[in-house]
Amino acid sequence: MAISCGCKGSYNSSKHATLFLVILLFSGRACCDDHPDASKRISCLESERSALLAIKSDLYNSDHWLSSWSGYDCYNWSGVACDNTTSHVIMLDVHYPFDPYVSYPDKSKVNPSLFNLKHLKYLNLSNNNFDSTHMPSMISSLVHLEHLGLSNANFNGLIPQQLGSLSNLRYLDLGCCDNWYSSLWSNDLSWLSHLTSLEYLDMSCVNLSLANSWVHQINYNSLEHLALSNCGLQDATGGAGTNNLSSNQIEGNISVNATGKLKHLELADNPLTKVPLNMGSLFHLEYLDLSWNYITDVILLSMVNLCCLEHLDLQGNHITGEILLSLGNFIHLKYLDLSHNRITGEIPLSMGNLTSLMHLDVSSNEFYGCIPDVLGNLVNLEELDIFSNNISCQIPGIIGRLHNLRYFNASMNYLMGRIPLSLGDLCNLEDLDLSLNNIDGELTNLLDGLSKCPQGSKLQSFVVSHNNFTGSISTGLGQLTQLQYLDASSNSLQGNMTDAHFSQLANLTFLDISYNSLNLILSDDWLPPFHAYKIDMSYCHLGTRFPSWIHTQTTLEELSLSGVGLYGNIPS
């Protein structure tokens, strides 16, 4: 049976909210000035205008984010929309608009006048600080609501079951962000069964440890996104599909409704030991996160029908043995993370079929053998991480075809031989780590290649420490204008380094060239273009006088010049 991947992209709450707003504002309802009588500008009703001002008076507004709420007419107040026939307020979006991690709002209150806006269809109070007060049950009187956002609002106590009377709801967000503390709880979710139109439900971090029948109480008819992470759930057997059950106490098989609309499924941070047997029937699934569980068996056979899968995260499990050749069937994959497992064998050649991949992480496993040439087929790849494996041989020249590569970490392997010339063609590379290998030869061709990028190299971090590199360091290093972090320590580099090697490194903050045989021949009046927090030139040759340019490094936290042959006093 051919399965069509008709819908692209995972379910996105902001996109859903935006789409709802567009529908709301263009279905015959818009701001209050769009009245059938075009000669008249109709403001919102005076009673509702007064209600809005009362609501504003109890919201934290020291940042003046509600500064547009002034004057008689409220048709142009931010976050407010009205029905163009009746002039009733139908949308109120007063979510705190600043990052609460950076600027946490002071206390606010829910003014009772809110419940006079009986015609509201859209209400967003997210990211305000309601000071651990109870969620008002009177919200249930707003029976026309289709969108209700109360996330990260610092409500406390029992979620009112009266929310179940909001039968028109399509979007309900009561959750909190990762690492936020929530003191909301519920021991009975039967009210959710009445929300037959619900498409999006987020109750992340709500304490549901006593809600034993939650699986059977949620209405799945229209549900596309279900987030129940960090809820303390005790059981997930029977019933229909679940989406984002992260950080819960779920064991064994999860019953998943294959007839649903599920596209995005997160089961991260659970004690799952195996994948649900019917996982392969979720034909429309695009996003699957099973990270940080206790999965041990080879699981990909149960997923062979997931032809639409774009994101697969299996990191942090106990997967052992060799991964199956069927991995190459997921031709739509853009993100694949197999890191922090116990996978052995060679990197399978079938990975060469994953030509849509943008992120590939197989770090912290037990892969051995060579980097296969077929990885050169992954021309869309932006991140490649093979850190901490047993991979040997030389880096294949075919890696130079990955012109979109931004991040390449091959540290802590057994790579040997010389760096291929083609690596110098990776002009989009921002982070390169080849440390803790047995690579030899010179760095000249790599540095010269990167320095000649037509629009300049984007390299920010260059780590080649603990290898067997020899020869001198090319002055091409000084042309890497974006470089911030340079570690070439513990090699056999030699030759001179002059002002030219640092000429355009204005962004450099970390410099470690220690444990080499380099001679630093710098002008007496040389002023570094950078301000570093760490400089380590141990066992290089600086001459006998303490370098005068050090006094310019006003941000320096760590300086190591041991074994450089200095004499005399350290200048004050």
Automatic annotation (TrEMBL):
Boundaries of every Leucine-rich repeat-containing N-terminal plant-type domain copy: 46-83
Q: Where in the cell is it found?
A: Cell membrane
User: What does UniProt give as GO cellular component?
Assistant: plasma membrane
All residue ranges annotated as the Disease resistance R13L4/SHOC-2-like LRR domain in the record: 302-467
What Gene3D superfamilies does the record tag this protein with? Answer: Ribonuclease Inhibitor
Give start-end ranges for the coiled-coil region(s). none
What's the domain of life for this entry?
A: Eukaryota
Listed SUPFAM superfamilies: L domain-like
| Residues annotated as signal peptide | 1-32
Its topology with respect to the membrane?
Answer: Single-pass type I membrane protein
* Keyword vocabulary terms for this entry: Cell membrane, Glycoprotein, Leucine-rich repeat, Membrane, Repeat, Signal, Transmembrane, Transmembrane helix
Q: Name one Pfam family in it.
A: LRR_6
Family the UniProt entry places it in: Belongs to the RLP family.
Q: Name the PANTHER family for this protein.
A: LRR RECEPTOR-LIKE KINASE (PTHR48063), RECEPTOR LIKE PROTEIN 30-LIKE (PTHR48063:SF112)
List the protein's name: Leucine-rich repeat-containing N-terminal plant-type domain-containing protein
Species this chain originates from = Zingiber officinale (Ginger)
